[in-house]
Specification:
By secondary structure, the protein is mainly alpha-helical. The chain contains two helices and no strands. The protein has one domain.
Length: 59
């Protein structure tokens, strides 16, 4: 359940950041892209961990 909560938190952060994108200048948009890439990596790791946990439950 911790992975699910962590994933939900990451998705909320990404949503909040993307909601601010229209108000940002080029520099802040560049920072947003970097942050979004970091969030994407973290979400992929969480999804992989959740898939492995589900596989273990199915055994």
């Amino acid at each position: 359940m911790a992975l699910v909560a962590d994933t939900q938190r990451l998705l909320r952060r990404a949503d909040e950041a993307l909601g601010q994108a229209p108000l940002m200048g080029p520099k802040l948009l560049g920072e947003l892209v970097g942050s979004t890439a970091h969030l994407n990596d973290a979400l992929r790791e969480n999804i992989e961990a959740m898939e492995k946990a589900v596989e273990k439950l199915g055994r």
